[in-house]
Each structure stands twice: as structure tokens, then as C-alpha cells.
């Protein structure tokens, strides 16, 4: 069975780990391909950071900092402390030393001329991840955020908006810079076309899944695949459990509501993306409306408290379209 | 009194520290300007390293690793270990974490558009160095080394030749890439022109002092200054105490000998650079010949075993032309 997952960072990583756990405990003969968001990627002082891909890598390798939610377990900040001591620093951005090691390894390979997908393959080879990790695209397509700050229109890199302002500065739009020149990374379209099922992880619908869908060719591949497409709601009881998806949804005019996100993705039967959609039990009242609208829906526990709970979610997603 | 020193890395740093010590213990009213070699500078995986300037900075700040001879005291290699774990690494190059902090701070400032001299000023402001540190030039003028490796002509960056091959691969030439477009950094020509004395530290005559002299305008400034120019031999008893100057001198056809190095710089009276030259007591037999050739010379202990010994060397250099 071939399972392809579109995923953002921390939430996506947790979901994929649960899916991998499901495969392990059920002896399912499954190949998992994860298409990771690259819209958060940034050049910081000449170093290429790819936050979502690294969150996926670290979580799948089991070296992530579970408590903090990002970065490497047991990391230190010797290099960052030095930057601050020089009064240079990354004022709104901190990279641990181990994390920086990943970033410098990636930067070295990119500067050697490797495309991002080849770099991800090289870095991922360090650990037995049990999944194939692909960036959505090899091109640099970074998400920039239109804001009004101190009375003036500005554009911030998504990472700055997210980390420095904690997404509190109202955004008026998200722009994928350079997206018109982008193509899906090698293997992405194939992974969607040849899948037995495609899952949209419970990631940010705007700046994670939405960004992946914005790469020309990916939405088309989803529309064309014979595989059913099932999403899991990142919104429970009208709020995002992780990250700050609330602000992102508000910006694009979508209600912060599990069913509203499904309608935003749209029913495949009516030109949208979804065959199925899972909402949390707390949002069960939205299920009949979704089904009427052509999206098979079910309410199940959607809190990814541990791998077992997350595996149950993944199982529910697979069963929804079986 | 204005003292301007042309200096390479570790040896230059040790000498300047001794000179600073002399100023402190004698209550000399002196301003010290150090012009540091930039020929070892390199881009490594998108990070700008400036080994000689950093050796000067760390030694003058008192944070250098005295035992190892380079880098920061108490440094760790968490980032480098990560690079190796990914199979990327800098195979012939290791940067400690604290050292990398300096490099990333510099890289950030350079990428913000600051010239190297402004970057050095910013970084140096962290500590009360007691001297003004200037790069020889703001332009990227890197030293490349012609070698024959595995039977083929190659050019290596100086750092690779120095660190990877330990200067053991015979060099046929040193080339300063881009030197024709370089100008002295702001303050360098002034520091030479307005000095009361100019000292050539006991640094590598080829790839440290020689590289500084190769920047168009610096040799001319030395020829034109009213200040006497005094050098200290980095060669004692026919060998270099630090670094691998032997191989460099051999490459350019200069004997590895204290007096030969002075003749290589040349007597100012005959179109060269030197008014005075200090050799070690072990090389006293070369003194009469140098004096005949127009270079005031004296034999004194030239081993920089500690700040007091080095201060005595600096004092002898100043006294030679008083």
C-alpha cells in the first residue's frame, strides 16, 4: 500500500510518526512518502533554514525536542550566545548548535549545487526514518506576509512574522514569492499519482498544506490521482491545537472551524480536493453538512497525544475511504 | 607615539600582545594599529572565515586557545560533529562552536553589506583590545596555491593547502586572486603614513606579510612614510618557529634564513622596505652583512615564550631605530 502525506512541520511530523507507528503495529505492507512544506524556508545570514523539513526529519529520527516542540533534543546554544555577545544575533530567531549543524550541512550541499530534494535525501540517510521525505519543490518559494506595522504596509518573511510577532501582527495576505517558476520536486507528482491513498496531515491549511498546494502541478496531481484524498482537521472546537492557524485562516477569510476548513479544500466531487475529512468528536455536528456537500466525514478523537492516539487517527483516515 | 604593525595570525597576535604589554608596563603613550593579513580568508559552506584576523582578535581579547595555538579557549565541536554525522563535514577543516559564532556574526554583517573593516570594528568592540585592528583590505583577495597533486597541476585555496596538506604538498607559486582590484582598507595607508614607527611582526614573510604587501598601495605607503620600518625575523636558526614558512620561502626562492628574509624585504636605502631588522641571537653572524647592505640589524632573543619576552623583543625593535 502506498500512502502519500502532505505535511507541515511539527503537527505534520507528529502525524507521520503516528502513521508510521500504525504501519509497524499492524504489519501493514505500506510505503509512506511525505511531501513537506518548504514555504517557511529562509536564508538567515547565509545559512539555509528549512524549519518544516527539519521538524519532520528530527521527529521521524526520534531526535526532536518533544517538550519544546521544535529543534533537537539536548541542544545547546553556544553559537547563538556568541552571536548575541557580538551584538549581531538573529534577534527573533534562535538556532541550537545541533540544529545549526543540520543547517550548515544543508547549506554546504546546496552551495555544492545539489537540489534541495537531493540534500534532504542525503541528510535523511543518517537515520532509518521508515518513510521517504520529499520537499514540495526544489525551487526557493518562500512565503511572505503582508502586514501593517507602525502604520506602514510591509512584507515580512513568514518566519519573521511567525517567530518574531507570534503571528499577532494582523496579516492581510500571504504571498509565495517565486511560485510561478516552481515545479514539484522529483517524485512528488509520482507519489501522488501512484498512491493508494493521499492524506492531508492536520497541518496549517494556509501556510503549510496551502503552500504545498500552491506549487504549480501539485493541486492538479491531486485532482488527477485515482487515490482517495483524505484530510484531518487541524482545528478542534474552533481553534488550532498547534501553531497559529487561527490567524492564517482569518487572513484568507476562512472560519476557524473544522468543517469550514474542509469546505475551503473543497469536495473532490465538486472540483475540490477532498474525498474524506476527519473532524474531532467535539466537532461532530459538522459531519452531516460535509457529507451533504460530497465529503465523506467522520468524527474521531483528533488529539495527537502520543503515537498510539495518532496511529488511531491515521487508521480512521485510511478506513474512511476503504 | 603611533606604532603600526603588519601582522599575520598566531605569530602576529603573540607579537602584538607583547607590544601591548610593553606599552602597559612602560607607561608608554602609544597607539597601536595592527594591519592584519586577509589572504587566508575563505568562504566555507557560505560562511566567511578570516583565520588571521580571528587569531589576532582572540589573542588580544585573551580568549584564544593558547595550548592548541588557534581558535577559542574552551571551545567545543558540537556543530562540526553534526556535519560529520551527516557525512558532509568540512573534511580538512574544523571550526569550534565559539569560533563558528564569530564566523556567523561576520557573515551576517557582510551579507548586510558592511565592508570587512566595519565588520572587524564591530566584532572587536566586544572586548577592550587596546589596539586598533584593521584588515589589510576590504576586498576579497584570497591566496591560492599552485601545486602538483597526483601528477596534475592544481590550484588549492591557501587554507586547504595549509590545513589539509600541512603545506607538505610542494607549492610552485602563490597567487593573490583579485589583487588587481584591491585597495587598502580605510585607515591602513593613514596608519602607515602617520606612524612614528612601523613594525613587521615575525609572521610568515610570504603568505602573511607578503600578502599584505601585495595589496596595491601598501608597499608604496611603506616606501613613502617618514616612519622607520623595522622587521623581526620569523626564522631562527634556519627554521620557522611557528607555521610552515619554510615551504613558503622555498617556493618563492628565498633561503630559510633570518638574513635572507631581510634581504628579501630589502633595504629601504636601496628601494626595499626595511630600516631595521632583528634576528635571534643564534643568527648573530648575519648581522654584519645586513648592516653592510644598509639594514640596521641587531641580534636579540626572538622566542615569544611569554608576554614579557615578547615585550622585550618589541622594545628592542623600537630601540633599534630610536
TrEMBL record, chains A, B:
Domain of life of the native organism: Bacteria
Residues making up the signal peptide according to the UniProt record: none
Pfam family, one: CofD
Entry EC no(s): 2.7.8.28
Keywords: Magnesium, Transferase
Record field: transmembrane: none
Gene Ontology MF: a single term: LPPG:FO 2-phospho-L-lactate transferase activity
Keyword Magnesium found: yes
Top-level enzyme category: transferase
HAMAP family with a match to the protein in the record: CofD (MF_01257)
Cited PANTHER family: 2-PHOSPHO-L-LACTATE TRANSFERASE
Protein's name in the database: 2-phospho-L-lactate transferase
Source species of the chain: Amnibacterium endophyticum
